[in-house]
Amino acid sequence: MNKTKTKLLAMGLVAAFIVASCGGSSSSTDSGATESGSSESNSLTDAWANDWEIAGLENPGIAVSDWAISAVDTSGFKKDGPYKIGFASQGPTNSWATVYDEALKARAAELGVELVYVSADGKEDKQVNDLNDLLAQNVDAVVVAPMGPAIAAPVKRLIDAKIPVIACAGELPEATATVVRDNRLNGAMYAEWIAKKINGKGNIIMLSGILATQTALNRKDAALEVFAKYPDIKILDSGETNWSPTEAKTLMEQLLTKHGDKIDAIWSDSGINDVGVIPVYVEAGKKIPPMTGEPLNGFLKLAKQHNVDFLAVGYPPTMSVDCLNAAVDALQGKPLTSWVNAPVPIFELSGVDKYVKTACSDDLWVPAVGLSDELLKKLKLC
């Protein structure tokens, strides 16, 4: 793989498979809800420049992520189809991961791609073996949801064998290209929103998914960088939820017992966590503090029902469609950039009615762009 030396300050999204769905897409509203990543603003630098304002915030001085974005020469991967593409998934360990898998599978069927699916079951060591197995099966390309740094070695073996590897929804420097929303930006925006909500002073807790993954680690590290600018904000406690509502509920029960009314706000890296958190407060009869999360329909329903103050910044599972498109583009010798920034919705409680789908499943990730009505029905999401 050869990359040009010139870094690109702006780049186009890989052509996405966009199908109208019951979730629909959203545009700017007077409530402040909007989607970043339009055709005019879809690069990493544009997101860092614009998304703070969309959320009603100012960047407190956090540097734009330096992912050394460059052009990728894919001519060495070019071959005739049909293609056999390996999909090294995290596995359907939660609703996000299930939609992520099914959206990519549906796109593969539409493109006539033979998909070799392997599930890591959320485990880094299993994914190492999965990638080695895909190499042995002579796949033409690989899409991988990185589960940890240990997969760098098998990824290098794939690339050395002239097999392009697209890192999907996770950072992986060794990959041919990466398609993801910058998790540093999400984590930092969450933290700044929390800081403003409590006027720069108070006690918070931090809930992360799986800190072995770069997704969770980058979000938390960026948040800590923001909180360090507020000496009067104290982090009472933190914990991992494994991105499971059940585990998040158990953890929150322990934290509420331990800290009680001292908790002024909750920095959460996912709406999945919040689905577990809100019922704990409701059952305890306590006022629910402001929190951060993502546009998971179940979370949005609870937030609307209980008037929970929140900031939601998306991390759409349907970015997996863009990842498969990127793999096919590489095999066709089309130019790529080393980083493709996924567009996301950003909104607060005041914009919840534009996104929440009361007639759809709690497991739906809105606005569900990229999922057909047929697939949503098959997955029992709408």
Describe the structure.
The strands form four sheets. The chain has a six-stranded parallel β-sheet, with helices on both faces. Strands 2-16-13-12 form a four-stranded mixed β-sheet. It folds into two domains: 2-22 and 66-181 and 316-378, Response regulator (Rossmann fold, 3-Layer(aba) Sandwich); 182-313, 3-Layer(aba) Sandwich (Rossmann fold), CATH 3.40.50. With 382 residues, the protein is an alpha/beta fold. The relative contact order is 0.20. Helix content is 36%, strand content 19%. It has eleven helices and 16 strands. The longest helix is centred in the first third of the chain and has 17 residues, at 95-111. It starts with a strand and ends with a helix.
Task: Indicate the CATH topology of the largest domain.
Answer: Rossmann fold
Identify the quaternary structure here: single chain
Rounded Rg: 20 Å
What's the CATH C level of the largest domain? Alpha Beta
The mean pLDDT is 87
| Arrangement of strands in the largest sheet | 5-4-6-7-8-15
CATH superfamily of the largest domain: Response regulator
Termini Cα gap = 42 Å
Q: What is the approximate shape? A: globular
CATH architecture of the largest domain: 3-Layer(aba) Sandwich
- Which percent range describes the beta-strand content? 15-25%
